[in-house]
Amino acid sequence: MKQRMADSGQRSEAQELRAVRVWLAVFMVGLVVSGLTAFPLRTEVRWLDAVVHSHAVRPVAERVRLVAWVDRVDEALEQMGAQYPFLQYGTDWLAFAHLAIAVAFIGPWRDPVRNRWVITFGLIACAGVVPLALIAGAVRGIPMAWRLVDCSFGVFGCVPLLMARRHVQWMESAGSGEQLVSARQRK
User: Fold this and answer.
1) Do residues 94 and 27 touch, judged by C-beta distance below 8 A?
2) pLDDT digit string, tens, across residues 129-167
3) Cβ contacts of residue 126 below 8 Å, gap of 6+?
4) pLDDT in tens, 102-113
5) Angle CA(133)–CA(54)–CA(82) in degrees, nearest 5?
6) What CA–CA distances, in Å, run from 102 to 34, 45, 126, 150?
7) Do residues 39 and 99 touch, judged by C-beta distance below 8 A?
């Protein structure tokens, strides 16, 4: 009977570890994708421009003033690329930062209990996205709708991290999360 309960506890801990890893993977993939999409801005804005100018989307896009905004961004990126291509180096660093932050989550992936502070760091960073987007976006003349889209990255980023943290807290309260990870690493 005791062995069955111990096996049940182990399975539960293994399930919690798997859940943590799934939620961290969701977050890390989000960081990598958003990082990689910061490199080809000019190409992406051309695609977006084609979409907002398409017959199916244009009427709605004009009503919410998206066509004018995308046209303005497209023109700015074109002029900047032609006259000042070195300014695009800033978005290269933005992309790199996303990729580097994703790498930081390998620690909690491997040992979530010991590295729970990285999850807390991620939650703080996600929370910081909202005031940054609202304040810096206003200073830079970014339309409110676009600032809200930017805010959503922080809000949606919190979801997998909060879920991972919940599972880590369960592992921590079970008291053997670190032993489970250590036992798996020894195999």
Assistant:
1) no
2) 999 999 999 999 999 999 999 999 999 999 999 999 999
3) 153, 154, 155, 157, 158, 161
4) 999 999 999 999
5) 60
6) 11, 25, 13, 18
7) no
- Quote the CA–CA distance of 20 and 119 in Å, as a whole number: 10
**Which DSSP letter does residue 112 get?**
T
Extents of the domains making up the chain:
11-182
- Stated pTM of the model: 0.82
Q: Whole-angstrom Cα distance, residue 118 to residue 122? A: 6
Give the whole-angstrom CA distance, residue 42 versus residue 167: 40
**171 contacts 114 by C-beta, under 8 angstroms:** no
Neighbour tally for 24: CB within 10 Å: 26
Segment 16-27 mean pLDDT: 97
Q: Model confidence over 76-128: pLDDT tens digits?
A: 999 999 999 999 999 999 999 999 999 999 999 999 999 999 999 999 999 99
* CB-based burial, 118-127: b 16+ in 10 Å, e otherwise: bbebbbeebe
The DSSP element (H or E) to which 5 belongs, if any, is: helix 2-36
Separation between Cα atoms, residue 161 and residue 126, nearest integer Å: 9
Residue pair 61/67 in contact by the 8 Å Cβ criterion = yes
- The length of the chain is 187
Question: Hey, what are 142's tokens?
Answer: 């970014």
